[in-house]
Specification:
Layout lengths: L7 E5 L5 H10 L7 H9 L3 E8 L6 E11 L2 E9 L8 H15 L4 E7 L3 H8 L4 E10 L4 E9 L1
Length: 155
């Protein structure tokens, strides 16, 4: 069932948002890479990200985010996560569209990402947004060790 969220703003991810990422990633089972790494990423031109803010919450709350990088003609979606209470409300789709739009602006022609083979909901999400399975990476993830699908689409 699709949830209705009245007011979502998509804004650039900044170093000030890094503390919020740790709790979001813990809840969504993403691996937090450490504050110093996020600050370093956001200081480099090839990395970028956006956050989805529930604007009518008091105070405004981060509902989700993505982190990506552009490498020549490739957009690599490194992370995307949405708090469970905001899932199925179109926020992940809006974040993907924001990533694609920025990638196109940077001259990217295709997007690729890795996803745990066991993450069926994420795989469905990506397949429904025209990404296809293009390959695999053996033992790509740790804690626990798991293989990943490589997924891609043309922008």
């Amino acid at each position: 069932m699709k949830r209705v969220i009245p007011a979502i703003q998509i804004l650039d991810l900044t170093p000030a948002d890094v503390p919020d990422l740790e709790s979001l990633e813990a809840v969504t089972q993403l691996s937090f890479w450490g504050e110093i790494h996020y600050h370093r990423f956001l200081d480099q031109e090839e990395y970028f990200g956006c956050k989805a803010i529930v604007a009518d919450a008091e105070p405004p709350k981060m509902a989700g985010f993505f982190l990506a990088r552009s490498i020549l003609e490739n957009l690599e979606l490194l992370k995307i996560g949405v708090y469970p209470e905001y899932q199925n409300a179109g926020i992940g789709t809006r974040l993907m569209h924001a990533a694609f739009a920025e990638g196109i602006k940077r001259g990217c022609l295709r997007c690729f990402l890795e996803v745990r083979k066991s993450n069926e909901s994420a795989i469905r999400f990506y397949l429904n947004r025209n990404l296809k399975i293009a390959g695999e990476r053996i033992h790509y993830y740790t804690q626990p060790v798991e293989d990943a699908w490589i997924m891609e689409c043309w922008l």
